[in-house]
Design brief:
Elements (H helix, E strand, L loop, with lengths): L3 H4 L2 E8 L7 E8 L11 E4 L2 H6 L3 H12 L5 E5 L6 H5 L6 H19 L9 E6 L1 H12 L6 E5 L5 H8 L8 E7 L5 E3 L2 E3 L1 H14 L3 E7 L5 H15 L4
Parallel strand pairs: 3-4, 3-5, 5-6, 6-7, 7-10
Antiparallel strand pairs: 1-2, 2-4, 8-9
Length: 245
């Protein structure tokens, strides 16, 4: 049974206007840690697929447990929702809406959050998190804006050919720290672009990043391409980036 303390979370609904996104607006959900105080400052995790990360990944519940029981430094989570019908176009680097989404994230979302919530404003205290194509877009936001983002959490990243080609053409990545995990039962996962071996995609991306001197935590574990697997790995991924207080 889940401890009631972990369920007494503060999660705010918010939204941001955008001149880059076609719909002109994007819904957000904001997790504020126990003991939240606006005069303090906090590390921040930005989650793609915000609704899924909160509902299926249970990231806010994991955050409560880590902060209250393990002494992890309190942090804020920003979940950025997505319209699933255009998710691939926004998240994939060869998608028709990808650049607009990257611009929205760096030029509108970041200033909005930093103007409204007491998050720390240095790159090594911001984490980009995502599952599947959410992991992909997190990496590509960092690649385009290394002055803003240097830390990426990727759960079974969908590192298709376009992603690999971009990284292969990139220079030194010694500024990048990435947490990568993939499930061993993801060898033939059907996507909207065809059937892919996600284990091999992640092995290939791991090699490309390693060759460019990125700092990488890489694991392959029993698991399928679904939240039942990723949810269990969320606490470990958070511990990798957020120190004990």
């Amino acid at each position: 049974m889940t401890d009631d303390r972990f369920l007494k979370r503060t999660i705010l609904k918010d939204s941001i206007d955008s001149s880059y996104l076609i719909e002109g607006k994007r819904n957000l959900r904001i997790y504020l840690p126990p003991g939240y105080n606006e005069v303090l400052s906090y590390p921040v995790i930005y989650c793609q697929d915000g609704e899924d990360f909160f509902n299926f990944g249970r990231i806010a519940t994991s955050a409560q447990q880590l902060i209250l029981d393990e002494g992890i430094e309190p942090f804020i989570i920003v979940g950025v929702d997505v319209d699933k019908s255009v998710r691939t176009e926004e998240y994939s680097p060869d998608g028709t809406r990808h650049q607009a989404y990257v611009d929205f994230f760096a030029l509108e979302l970041l200033p909005y959050i930093e103007g409204k919530y007491p998050v720390r404003q240095n790159a090594d205290e911001r984490v980009l998190a995502g599952d599947s194509l959410g992991g992909t877009v997190s990496l590509h936001i960092a690649l385009q804006h290394p002055e803003l983002f240097t830390r990426v959490m990727s759960m079974s990243g969908a590192f298709y050919e376009a992603s690999q080609a971009i990284v292969a053409a990139t220079g030194d990545l010694d500024w990048l720290t990435i947490f990568m995990i993939v499930g061993l039962q993801e060898e033939a996962f059907e996507t909207d672009r065809g059937v892919y071996n996600f284990v091999q995609l992640n092995r290939d991306m791991h090699r490309l990043l390693q060759e460019r001197n990125a700092t990488i935590h890489y694991e392959e574990k029993d698991g399928k391409h679904q939240w039942g697997f990723w949810q269990k790995e969320v606490p470990q991924a958070i511990r990798y980036f957020i120190p004990q207080f």
